[in-house]
Write a structure and sequence with these properties.
Blueprint lengths: L1 E5 L10 H15 L3 E7 L11 E2 L2 E6 L8 H15 L4 E5 L7 H6 L4 E5 L11 H17 L2 E4 L2 H11 L5 E2 L14 H5 L7 E5 L8 H10 L7 E5 L7 H13 L9 H9 L3 E4 L8 H8 L4 E4 L2 H4 L8 E2 L4 H13 L14 H16 L3
Helix pairs in contact: 1-13, 7-8, 7-12
Length: about 375
């Protein structure tokens, strides 16, 4: 079975939740016997990831302008045309923006599976027209995709209530159980000490709430003893990203950039507290990663985070600076606690098996 994957910026080592999802999922599907081609956006191909394959997954680079408003739609149109030329058995479209092209893919005779990663029109970074396009993409996916996968029950309820689409498959994001790093050379190079910093991980976009976190943390007495680390960066130069980096520099926040591998392992292994102040998420892989390292966590009470069913003390009221400040202070003053989480629902091997079953159902209808 030949699967062509679009809607992602690409793999490997490209920042983003969908990108992490694809990097983990598709090598496993190759091992299960699928032929998988991931279509990458040319503007994210660098010397570090200039490859033709990754762990058995074939990589096809197709032009995309690195312009926020045109990047996804231009690339998706070209990628759909490529999938038709390749005679894909299944076209797998990730995210609602690229799903605008699902009717076009159906006109070309392609079988389409769509994964809905979250209502992106809720993200603050998009203007009115972009939000309209994203809502249209969600509608096109709900109406025309042959099969739909959702990564959370929150998203499943959106499809049921807004579009009466009741047959979506709920398949969560996953996480690997890590081998913690015994080394500290990288964190020391950042000026950090073991268990003397708070960590958050993600892109520099407004809905992550990092500006609020920086402002709140910098005013706390505990900021004299602990540091704040934000691992990630901006995919596009925006005014928000520039202001965030200026604010971080002013307040002494550590910005290691987008890191992977051993560097990220050390940063997770040695953190004292993981904080996720987001206003919007689908199902945050970075939170699952923090849980896999058995870190104490503090996250906003948005529906996607509440779905993970953490203890009440691990949540703060979304957007509330007072509640965030109180909860950070409380967790750090209480001393480090031993935490364990059940991550059985987020096993990548099971996720790959369930995704393959979705493909087989649609392939058998061909």
């Amino acid at each position: 079975m030949k699967i062509v994957v679009i809607g992602t910026r690409g793999i490997p080592k490209i920042q983003g939740g969908v990108e992490t999802h694809c990097e983990e999922l598709y090598p496993r599907l190759v091992k299960m016997g699928c032929e998988v081609i991931i279509v990458r956006r040319s503007c994210y191909v660098t010397e570090d990831n200039k490859l033709t394959s990754y762990k058995g997954v074939k990589l096809k680079d197709i032009f995309a302008p690195k312009q926020k408003s045109l990047e996804a739609i231009t690339h998706t149109f070209l990628a759909v045309c490529y999938a038709r030329r390749e005679k894909a058995d299944i076209l797998h479209v990730h995210a609602i923006g690229p799903s605008l092209m699902i009717p076009f893919a159906k006109l070309l005779g392609l079988k389409v599976v769509m994964t809905h990663h979250g209502p992106d029109y809720d993200r603050q970074k998009w203007g009115r027209l972009a939000k309209m396009a994203l809502r249209a993409g969600e509608y096109m996916g709900a109406k025309y995709a042959d099969r739909i996968i959702v990564i959370s029950e929150v998203i499943n309820n959106i499809l049921k209530t807004k579009y009466n689409r009741t047959d979506a498959e709920l398949i969560f994001n996953g996480v690997n159980i890590p081998v913690k790093s015994p080394d500290i050379d990288y964190i020391e190079s950042l000026g950090l000490e073991k268990e003397k910093y708070l960590l958050t991980v993600g892109r520099f976009v407004e809905e992550k709430g990092y500006d609020i976190l920086i402002d709140v943390f910098s005013r706390l007495p505990v900021s004299k003893e602990y540091k704040l680390v934000i691992a990630g960066g901006a995919l596009h130069e925006t005014e928000y990203a520039r202001k965030l980096m200026d604010l971080a520099k002013e307040k002494g926040v550590i910005l290691p950039g987008f890191i992977t591998g051993e560097k990220l392992n050390q940063v997770y292994t040695n953190a004292r507290l993981f904080v996720l102040p987001s206003f919007h998420e689908g199902l945050p892989i970075c939170l699952l990663e923090a849980m896999s390292y058995r870190l104490d966590v503090l996250v906003s009470d948005i529906p996607a985070n509440l779905m993970i069913a953490l203890p009440p003390d691990d949540y703060f009221k979304t957007g509330s600076r007072d509640d965030l400040a109180q909860k950070i202070t409380g967790k750090l003053s209480a001393g480090k606690k031993k935490v364990t989480y059940s991550l059985n629902l987020y096993n990548w091997d099971n996720i790959a098996s369930r995704t393959l079953e979705v493909y087989k159902k649609e392939y058998s209808n061909a």
